[in-house]
Specification:
Blueprint (H helix, E strand, L loop, with lengths): L1 H12 L3 E4 L8 H11 L3 E6 L4 H8 L8 E3 L5 H14 L5 E4 L18 H21 L1 H4 L4 E7 L11 H21 L4 E8 L5 H4 L5 H10 L10 H11 L10 E4 L13 H6 L2
Parallel strand pairs: 1-2, 1-4, 2-3, 4-5, 5-6, 6-7
The structure holds nicotinamide-adenine-dinucleotide.
């Protein structure tokens, strides 16, 4: 029984060629995706850029197998062109690309919403939402025609406001919309485009949001399945499902991997706590 489920698990993404952006350190959600992808038989390449590239290279050494790190500042079209050429030489096709990239300047976060200058809001939009279009369209010649899959990482933002998240929240709402429009235009080319809306994970990007500690507590107390903000594995495994052929009927979707947090209206109280509150 155990043997059979292992075989199925391996078949999900065995042999898939995946480009994984956004690995910074071992806390990165993309690191969990890279680790799980290798553990389940996929071939991966990572990207990083500029000053943080050496950190990514150091982090990559902690993966089960050695992996190359390509230069990609997602806001530079020439970097995207170079990555496409490198992938064309190396693999000739790409089965999946993970967009795990977000950035907002400090004055676009932390309760400064009303005073944020347009330039900072625009930077958040360009790097965190528009960039999904840039990378998917840039890699399209390698993704199209063979059930390629593009996945981005969302934080549930199209219909609610959060403390401190500010213009990153607006950018994530845009990212959800970008996901749907890409799905519309790329479906006929047999490319799927989906988002995984992750529960709060303590990463470098998360720590950059002032007061982010309360997010961890919020998810732990409200998610009916519980939620561990130090473990991105459940998010990574959902991403791999979206790279697998088992999700071939899914596009334009936002899958919540947050322990059920998004579906609840209030904190989870035990029956005893509920009675005490009556
Ligand atoms: N941490 C969370 O709670 C959480 C929840 C939901 C979604 N997300 C999303 O997951 C994604 C990954 O973030 P993370 O939390 O793992 O943090 P992280 O800090 O580990 O990753 C963010 C990555 O974005 C990269 N990046 C920033 N600007 C870039 C640019 N111009 N070009 C290329 N790469 C660039 C950074 O190098 C870094 O690797 C982000 O989109 C984030 O919004 C995070």
């Amino acid at each position: 029984m155990r043997r059979e489920s292992t075989t199925i698990r391996h078949m999900l993404i065995e042999g898939k060629k995946l480009l994984i952006t956004g690995v910074l350190n071992p806390d990165s959600i993309a690191f969990a995706v890279a680790r799980e992808a290798q553990a389940n038989g996929a071939e991966i390449l990572l990207t990083s850029f500029g000053r943080v590239r050496s950190i990514t290279e150091k982090t990559a050494k902690r993966l089960p197998k050695p992996v190359e790190v390509l230069e990609l500042d997602v806001n530079k079209p020439e970097d995207i062109d170079n990555v496409r050429e490198r992938l064309a030489q190396r693999w000739g096709r790409v089965d999946g690309v993970l967009h795990a990239i977000a950035y907002a300047p400090p004055d676009a976060l932390g309760g400064n919403f009303l005073a944020t200058p347009y330039e900072s809001a625009a930077t958040a939009f360009q790097t965190s939402a528009y960039s999904f279009k840039s990378i998917v369209v840039g890699l399209l010649p390698l993704l199209e025609g063979h059930d390629g899959s593009a996945v981005t990482l969302d934080f549930d933002n199209s219909h609610v406001a959060w403390p401190a998240y500010d213009w990153m929240g607006v950018a994530k709402a845009a990212l959800e919309s970008v996901t749907r429009y890409l799905a519309r235009d790329l479906g006929p080319k047999r490319v799927r485009v989906n988002a995984v809306s992750a529960g709060f994970v303590r990463t470098m990007a998360a720590k950059g949001i002032p007061g982010s500690k309360i997010f961890g507590e919020l998810f732990s107390t409200r998610a009916p399945l519980g939620w561990d903000p130090t473990d991105a594995t459940p998010v990574a495994q959902a991403v791999l499902f979206l790279f697998s052929d088992w999700s071939r009927g899914i596009t334009g979707e936002i899958i919540h991997v947050d322990g059920g947090f998004h579906a609840m209206g209030a904190q989870m109280y035990s029956p005893a706590e509920q009675q005490a509150g009556e």
